Write the structure tokens for this entry.
Amino acid sequence: MRGWLLTRHFDLRQTLECGQFFDWSRGSSGYQVRACGRVFEVSQEGDRLTFSGVEKAFIQRFFSLDHQPAAIRARLPPDPWLDKAFAAYGRLRLLRQDPWECLVAFLLSPVSNIPRIQRNLRSVHDATGFEPSRMRPALLKGLGLGFRWRFLDSAARRVNKQGLGRWRKRGPAAMQGILGAGPKVQDCVRLFGYADYSAFPVDTWIRRALQELYGVKLKDRELRLWAGERFGPWGGYAQQWLFAWSRSERRFLRPGRIPARP
DNA sequence: TCCCAGGCCACAC
DNA sequence: GTGTGGCATGGG
């Protein structure tokens, strides 16, 4: 299976590398991606997206090529900071990941960093193929996940009990009670795995950004509500634009180095 | 050497 | 209910 398609207002690099997804690697030309139980290659030249190893319909769905960034921006409130973030990162799309794979990835995220999450996730994938029945403690402990191996163990036990198919169909509620699946992790899976675009994950970067750009000094639980009210049903996109932009401007997001209001 | 990292949990009070 | 330390490991 090999093919191509034309895209508009889409950036493959931003989309894969912005931190919503980790199971990619740069190949000779473009990226190799492992997602939703498939392995495929994809590359972009201009507006032309070339892929192999997977069918076109999958590419369109996985990369959310049905989304229109300008229309989404228009559904978010007027906001100079959002304008800046959108100008820089508005060509990324929120992926439609598999909820289970997405949960596994973000259970590896607490007190870690993106390069390490990526390494850890690849190890887990290579060792288990993301099959919960193969995620045994003895195996997980040897993968250098730190304390996070318990989180995968807890999730795997839960999913094994009811079967992966049934677990997926239960939706976000199925994450309740899994060790390590707190508010931030659940919001990430809602946003990236269940296509709930109202989800607004609050992490260290977003916390700093909201505090230093908008002057809101609240606890994470209130920040989440504040963002929900301000940004509404498409807040997830706002979150990801601000997240990517904040990271790229990291030296400006330190106390005393706040950029001038645009 | 010390500090922090896409948090979360158990345990004070 | 709210605040705090500890958690495994790696990198700056």
Q: What stands out?
A: Residues 19, 106, 109-114, 116-117, 147, 151, 179-185, 188, 201-206, 220, 243 of chain A lie near DNA strand B (CB under 10 Å from a C1'). Residues 200 and 224 of chain A are 6 Å apart (CA to CA).
